[in-house]
Amino acid sequence: MKKQTNKIAFLLLLIINSCTELDLVPLDAPTTAPFISKIQFREGLNEGYRMFHWIKDESGNGVDDDFQRRDALDVIKAGTLNSEDGRAAARWKDKYKGISRLISIKKQIENQNGVLTDKEAKTFLGEANFFIASFWSYLITHYGDVPFFEEELTVDEAFEIGRTNKTEILQKIYDYYDNAITNLPVSYSGLQYATKGAAMAMKARIALYMGDHQIAAEAAQDCMDLKEYALHPNYGELFLSGTKTSDELIFSIPRSDALGVNRNDNLPDFLPRTHGGWGAKQPTWELLASYECVDGLPIDESPLFDPRNPFKNRDPRCLATIVPFGSLEDGDGLLPSDGSNFMNIEYTPHPERLQVFDYNTGEMRFNHDTRSNRTFASYNGLLWKKFIDETWKAPSTAENNHIVIRYADVLLIYAESKIELDEIDASVLAAINKVRDRAYAGSNFSNPVVTTIDQTKLRYIVRNERRAEFANEGLRYMDLIRWRLAEKALTGNTYGMANIGSIIEDVVEPDLWFWGMTPQLDEDGIANFAPLVEAGLARTLNETNFPARQYLWPIPSSDALLNSNLGQNEGY
């Protein structure tokens, strides 16, 4: 039976008072007077579901090598992150706000006097511990050693507390998750909240992020053994605004325009200009290059790759994630200049395609998405397809679920952890191939099954698999951080099409559209586009830099100034 995703009681979410200021001792902490009704406990726990607690590592300009906004740079990719940074300060404050409030709610649950049944009290306690563990997880992965506490702090204590080693905090996080696993139900019959499986999955994630592969593998296995989750049959459909429920969603925050819980992060930037958007937020060329061909080989090894038709014969997730153009497979009769039907209008950035076909009217229309017509059309010719559908046509908001963790992640966490432990067996290959089988389902190709048991080869495969599977989901940044690849992947350049005069003379007329030559990939799957620039087939949009200090974010200067015991992370 299809179960509902982890829906939150929207109306309860909306009545929680908002707050903009936060300290280790939040000014808007819940009342210390004993709760006298079940609804008070529920309203207090709903603090944990507020969207800002679950914001992933993304920004309008992109913080990883999969996402860019024209030629703008986020401070992460510019290498200029400092202790005055507003985002680093806001995430620090938000997480401490959530922890402080949930500790207060937890105390109310532990001291409640018959307001809740024993079962209700255990479930609510598990829910509170789930949130506390998740918020501490974010803090230690981003800031390292941080102030840690399990009881409410006084103002004086907040000014004096020092930092606790992150490995010590990690053990406490495991304890919180274990309590949640013990006390939370596998599922709910009505409104959906955090579950046993969610606690297992999030425990597996933090263990993976911290390099604790044994714990990660065990927690992922426990989640798999619940038999409660399954991969959504259609990869692209999973991310659309109309997909409200799925057996793949382990923990997510649903959105609804009617109830005021929605996505509103400059959505026109994602849309094609022909659809009334700006085409400004783009997948990178590096991401496009990373998808394997349908023979299972990378583009610089596969005889199937055609740089003139870079979407041809590629992993189906490539076409579900980036709006494709040109020929897609042998025999389709399409030219490199042809586009694809995206939301009933043809999309192609080809400089000579001044008009495109409108499937709604059956007529040709002005092509706003070629730089021959519009100077600020996509700088690299690429646009996001994943998450975007017809409901975004004239948007200020969107209703796509905010996915925190899904079953594909659990499968790949399990596989990666077992690979790092060098405990490679049939279950590891099965986990990887389940994800790949779903990716190829419904396409004209079959999954080129992974069969190798070589640890080095499998490490490459599972890392590239994560990139293909989770593109535009806000997970790539932390993958680069924990693999210690950020200095390589985020230091260099971002690339785009040559200026319009050059691209026609040097690329289109010699019949070299789109890339002109195949970019080479290194041992970590990172593409090199410098030869295209040197040959005049592309241009550098900007220079990126990731200094080693940025593997950890800075302690906010405002807090460090108030409490000298906090110190500062190295390099800031």
From TrEMBL:
<dbReference type="Pfam" id="PF14322">
    <property type="entry name" value="SusD-like_3"/>
</dbReference>
<dbReference type="Pfam" id="PF07980">
    <property type="entry name" value="SusD_RagB"/>
</dbReference>
<keyword id="KW-0998">Cell outer membrane</keyword>
<feature type="domain" description="RagB/SusD">
    <location>
        <begin position="263"/>
        <end position="572"/>
    </location>
</feature>
<dbReference type="InterPro" id="IPR011990">
    <property type="entry name" value="TPR-like_helical_dom_sf"/>
</dbReference>
<keyword id="KW-0732">Signal</keyword>
<comment type="similarity">
    <text>Belongs to the SusD family.</text>
</comment>
<protein>
    <submittedName>
        <fullName>RagB/SusD family nutrient uptake outer membrane protein</fullName>
    </submittedName>
</protein>
<feature type="domain" description="SusD-like N-terminal">
    <location>
        <begin position="47"/>
        <end position="208"/>
    </location>
</feature>
<keyword id="KW-0472">Membrane</keyword>
<dbReference type="InterPro" id="IPR012944">
    <property type="entry name" value="SusD_RagB_dom"/>
</dbReference>
<dbReference type="InterPro" id="IPR033985">
    <property type="entry name" value="SusD-like_N"/>
</dbReference>
